[in-house]
Design a protein that fits this description.
Number of domains: 2
Shape: elongated
Number of strands: 2
Helix content: over 70%
């Protein structure tokens, strides 16, 4: 059984074999309200909590910004490396299609033809 108290639900006993009547439920709810009255926090507590929350938000924002910078750097570095490797593979493929395996092979062939 769950009792609504403000925006919070209090679980009393979900393994109960017999359902609780509405009158019993209302009595338990009233007893809980009397035992746990709402408390208004002090202004000092609210101010301290606000400071802590602002510091935590600033810390998380800094961590997020640092992560974005590292991810951006790694993306640029990875893209550059991938571009170089791709260019080298294309050059190698073009050289193999032309029948010259290396630059030295080109020089020897030019020397023989001349």
């Amino acid at each position: 059984m769950r009792l609504k108290w403000g925006a919070t639900y209090i679980t009393l006993n979900e393994t109960c074999a017999s359902p609780v009547s509405a009158a019993e439920e209302a009595g338990v709810a009233e007893a809980v309200r009397q035992a746990l009255p709402p408390v208004v926090p002090s202004l000092d507590f609210v101010a301290a909590l606000e400071g802590e929350l602002l510091r935590e938000a600033a810390r998380r924002q800094a961590v997020h910004q640092q992560f974005r910078q590292v991810a951006g750097f790694l993306g640029i570095l990875g893209g550059g490396i991938l571009s170089l490797v791709g260019g080298m593979l294309l050059w190698r493929s073009w050289q193999q299609k032309e029948g010259a395996g290396t630059l030295q092979g080109n020089l020897v062939r030019v020397g023989v033809a001349a």
